Amino acid sequence: MTIMQKLNNYFKDDNEINEVIQYIQDHPQPNNNNRFHNPLAGWKKNKYIHFILRDNKLVYKPLNLIVVPKTEINNVLKQEYNNDIIFKTRWWTRS
To answer: Pairing mode, if any, of strands 65-66 and 51-54?
Structure first.
């Protein structure tokens, strides 16, 4: 299983995502990368130790990926698809 497949199945539902966001908000992280000071250390067996909050969005820090709530997946995919079509159209028409 690839890292992307694992990340796609990391959270069982939006409630779990919100639980992690709430925990991080209630336990602010210091501005260093020392995992011993990470508020998620020890919580749920370090499952979420690589997640941070950025602009009130949960981010998987090693790959800088934003966690998309399950209920928003289709909207985000449509938006990215439409953006990709616009980008390709502009790129191809510039030649």
So the answer is: unpaired
Cα–Cα separations (whole angstroms), residue 36 to 59, 63, 73: 19, 21, 33
Strand-pair category, 65-66 with 57-60: antiparallel
CA–CA dist 86, 23 (Å, integer): 38
Is the entire prediction scored with pTM above 0.85? no
Residue given tokens 């011993």 in the structure block = 36
Contact indicator for 51, 29 with CB cutoff of 8 Å: no
Write the pLDDT tens digit of every residue in 52-94: 999 989 999 999 999 999 999 999 889 888 887 666 555 554 4
